[in-house]
Every structure is written in structure tokens, then in C-alpha cells.
Task: structure prediction
Amino acid sequence: MSIYQDREQTEAKHFILRKYLQTLAFKALHGGWNLAYIDGFSGPWQSRTIDHSDSSFMIALEVLRDAQAKVRRVGKRPRIKCFFSEENRDSYAQLQAAVAPLHDPANSFFIETFNGKFENAISSIQKAMEGSFALTFIDPTGWTGYEFDKVKSIFEHAPGEVLLNFMFDFVNRFTASSDAKILASFDGILGPGWQQRFDQSLRREEALMKLFREQFGRAGAFSHVLCTPIEKISDRTHFYIVYGTRSAEGLAVYRDVEHAALRDHDMRRAFAREAIREHKTGQSDMFGLEGAASFAEMSADAQFASIKLQAKYWLREQLPKCPKPFSEIWPPMLDRFMVRKTDAKDICVDLGKAGEIKETWRQNGSRRRKPDDADQIERA
Ligand SMILES: C[S@@+](CC[C@H](N)C(=O)[O-])C[C@H]1O[C@@H](n2cnc3c(N)ncnc32)[C@H](O)[C@@H]1O
Result:
């Protein structure tokens, strides 16, 4: 039996964490940064392996140790600090026993653990983050324990990014409760008076995600907030991996990882709603119930192709505001649509071939087939 049998969501979550951290660690360490990795809700939780290799903390440690060893081979000596907090006493004991042997100060690999609530570790975490690029991973079992006003300083750390598991099903169910105490427990993530700020023109799921994205983005002053829907097909429970960054480069890497996760894990059905945001061209009724339903039936590749087409329509609408370098085209495109930087290039190539934009990347005898950041995108 696979260690992820009946835990497809966990598998998808771990896939995104592993792949994203691999690329981030490689880039940051090669770029001369020290790295801090924070896991606020570490577990272990429903782990099926003796060495906890199917737990987020072990996955991260494996990736970070490997990345550090690789850059050491080229003569760099970066410092890596990991901070794991876990409230449950028994889980903490297991966590502590599993990670202690990997604490390796002589090689600048530090592991700190904390038995208690994430929110009570803030000042220790801030210390661990000092002078480092930080990735914070938040994976709670519900919607409490990361109230934004309490953890804001962690989110705001620069340079830094946050990956968060948003338990959509729970939140969706309990925000519809009539119990005042339960409703008030959402103030910490949706902001006081959230009921009045629900966008009534949207369907409930979209309105909820919009509200959460805004609050999350504000807490970390993020310039990009991406939400990847992960749905367990068997019982239709789903959650979102929410990613916040202030870096266009991070945005590009995350879209690559997300694409691989959704394609390889066949977690595509839920992503209709989030795939295309705030773009109603009238050329598609994807936002209507019928559109969303038929979209959900498509293969992952057909879905990606359809999103790419929407992104192309969007770029066409931007052309009157051009010329602009490609570096100012792809970040807003990736922010709005579930497409990768390579897709943004393909879209430009298509528009170039169709004679709608100038093939500036081929001018002056250049043999480049696709635009780079500095190439101007402008109407032909
Ligand atoms: C979903 S599990 C984490 C799973 C783990 N990230 C993984 O992917 O392998 C959430 C963990 O957070 C712990 N927890 C719950 N509330 C917490 C809090 N306020 N602070 C720290 N840990 C908490 C729980 O005991 C549980 O072990």
C-alpha cells in the first residue's frame, strides 16, 4: 500500500511543498542567502512511516540538507535554520526525537523545536529568521492558530514567503453556522465584520476565497497571492494551498510547481473557479454554473489549454497599453491566470505569428524563437 493511499490531498500538499522548497532553496542558497524554514503546525500527523518521511517536517529537512550539501560542493557555506512548532505533547515528543539527530551546528544546519502554540513562538521565530530568506509553512487542522494580527510579523519578514493550507471545507461549512461564537472565530482570518464584506455578486466559494486572499495578502503585504485548489475526488473534500510572495520570480516558480501538481495528481476538478480570476471577457461562461461544470469534466490538459486561451484574450486587451517589456506582461498574467511563464511566452509567439504583435525577439537577425524579459511586446 502506498504511504499516501486514501491521503491524496496530503500527497498533493507534500508534492507542492517538496518541489517548491527544492527550487527555492537551490535559488536562494546559490544566490548567497541564508535560509530559514518555519513550520508552524509540524505534526507528525497521520504519518505512516517509522522515520516520518511522509511528514512535512521530514520532507523539508531532506530537501534542505540536500540543497545545502549541493551548494557546499561549489564552495558556499550558507546557514540553514529550521523552526518547528507543535502543540500536542505526544506529537511533539515524536517530532523532537525524529529531528534532533539532524541538528548539525558544526555544518551551520540548525533545528529548533517548540512545544506549544505557533502564536506563542513568534519572537523565537523572528530570531530564527534574522538575516535569512524565510519560507513559512502553515498547515493547521482547522482555521484557528494563525490569526493574522498575531502572526503578521512572520508573514511580513523580507525576503520571505508563506505557504498555507487553507481548510476550505471546514471554513465553508462553519462560516454558514448560526452560532455567534463560531462566527466570531473567523474574525482572525477574515477580519472583523467579514459577513458584511462578502461579495454578494460571487458564488459563495469564490466570495470566501476572495475575502481570505485579501486578508492574507494584506497580512504579508504580498504582491501576489495564489490559491491552488486540491480536491479529494473520492469524497469531494477540498482545501487550497495558498501561496504569498512579493517576488515575480517566486510567482513563476510556484506556477510551474502547481502545474505539475495538478497534472500529475489529477487534482484538477476543483480548479475551475480559481484558474481564471477577475477576467470576464464574455468569451467564455466559465464563471457560470454550466461553464464550471463542463470545465470540470475536461482532461487536465484541456483545462490548461482553455485557461491559456483566456490568458491570450487578456493579453489582447492589454495591447493598447503597450509597448511594454515582456517582464511587465507575464507577472500580471500569471497572477490572474493559472499559467506558467513558458505559457506566457507561447502566447506571445502565437500572437506574433498571427501578426497581432511585433516579433521583436526576432529582430536584428536574432534567432530567438520566444521573447525574453527585455523584449518589447507591442501591437504590429
Ligand atoms: C495537519 S497537522 C500537520 C501535518 C504536517 N504539516 C504534515 O503535512 O505532515 C496539524 C498539526 O498542528 C498541531 N497544532 C494544532 N494547533 C496548533 C497550534 N496552535 N500551534 C502549533 N501546533 C498546532 C496539531 O497537533 C497537528 O499535529
Notes: DSSP finds 15 helices and nine strands in the chain.
